[in-house]
Design brief:
Shape: globular
Structural class: mainly alpha
Order of helices and strands: HHHHEEHH
Strand order of the largest sheet: 1-2
Largest sheet: 2 strands, antiparallel
Strand content: under 5%
Helix content: 55-70%
Length: 188
């Protein structure tokens, strides 16, 4: 029997956490699979949420938290710095383009987390207008768990938007794909 080092345990934890995030991304992608650009921009509830807007937002969420982990995030973000269309699919944007950006952000985020030597390393969060005055620090692990929460949270929103759009059930789509051995790409 070999011995298990702390790095082996952390590598297992890291891969488990990344697998959870990947699973939530896949669940989210089932909600946009088979939707066209026009449908992706339709708000189907009393909120302004659309499938395209949620896809865009989750790509940006991953890029924003990647910048926190790699140290390139700004120290302070003012109201004027926030993109008013950050959660909206705007004219000229396509679902395919938003999917490409989402997948690129996910791949870069996962790569950075895999390369991170210490999930316990502290990172300082940017100060937003709604932040407390004192700096907030999280571990890289906390950031990874937060990204998981964000994707899971918005997957629920997307599921409701999609069901109201055309009656499609994300769970039914997942069961059908699993029975066929498919892997969702989100391309339709």
């Amino acid at each position: 029997m070999g011995t298990t080092s702390a790095n082996d345990l952390q590598g297992g934890e890291r891969e488990d956490l990344l697998a959870l995030v990947a699973d939530q991304r896949t669940n989210f992608l089932y909600t946009v699979a088979g939707v066209g650009d026009e449908q992706a921009g339709v708000a189907t509830t009393v909120s302004e949420l659309t499938l395209g807007g949620l896809l865009k937002h989750l790509g940006e969420v991953q890029r924003t938290w990647l910048a926190v982990v790699d140290g390139t995030a700004p120290g302070k973000v003012d109201w004027a710095d926030l993109d008013p269309d950050g959660s909206r699919m705007t004219k000229g944007e396509t679902l395919a383009g938003l999917l490409d950006a989402f997948h690129a952000a996910a791949a870069e985020f996962d790569h950075t987390v895999r390369q991170e030597p210490d999930l316990d390393r502290l990172v300082t969060l940017p100060q937003y207008p709604w932040s407390p005055p004192e700096p907030i620090t999280w571990t890289v692990r906390h950031v990874l768990l937060h990204v998981f929460r964000e994707v899971a949270h918005h997957s629920g929103h997307a599921d409701i938007v999609r069901e109201a759009l055309d009656g499609a059930s994300t769970t039914a789509r997942m069961v059908e794909a699993a029975s066929r051995g498919d892997d969702v790409s989100g391309d339709g």
